[in-house]
Design brief:
62% helix, elongated, 0% strand, mainly alpha
């Protein structure tokens, strides 16, 4: 059976090679090349080529942004449900105080440490995602990400 890779703060970001290392460079090179070709003369075709190159880059970036936004909304809902289940009554009433970035960062905390970490985040008004993630001791891996 294949061994599951351990996830932690250092390796939790997701890179999809065909997307990040192939498609993005191809679109970027195409856009730059279309700009370079303007030196041969500006006409309708050359302007359309630059606009299409720019549109490809913008569409590529927004495709990623849209999927990450949906993912963040799902995580926000999931974390509110987890917090409802795990927090003490005094903390449960403070769930609306959490910001989306705080909830997204807390998702990596295991159930045993989530209540304590949630209290720290609220009491210390922690907002930096990296700071919150670095405080997680029992990392709960998340491999189902966009």
């Amino acid at each position: 059976m294949a061994q599951v890779k351990v996830q932690n703060f250092e390796n939790h970001t997701r890179v999809v090679p065909p997307y990040h290392m192939f498609a993005l460079p191809v679109f970027a090179i195409n856009f730059v090349w279309r700009l370079v070709q303007l030196k041969d003369g500006i006409n309708f075709a050359s302007i359309m080529n630059v606009l299409l190159g720019a549109a490809f880059v913008v569409a590529f970036l927004y495709a990623r942004l849209f999927s990450l936004t949906v993912q963040d909304r799902v995580i926000r809902l999931e974390m509110r449900l987890r917090l409802e289940r795990l927090l003490t009554p005094d903390l449960r009433s403070r769930i609306p105080e959490f910001t989306a970035p705080q909830l997204i960062s807390l998702r990596f905390a295991g159930d045993d440490e989530l209540p304590g970490l949630a209290r720290q985040v609220l009491d210390e008004r922690l907002s930096d995602r990296k700071t919150i993630k670095r405080r997680v001791k029992n990392w709960q891996a998340d491999f189902l990400r966009a």
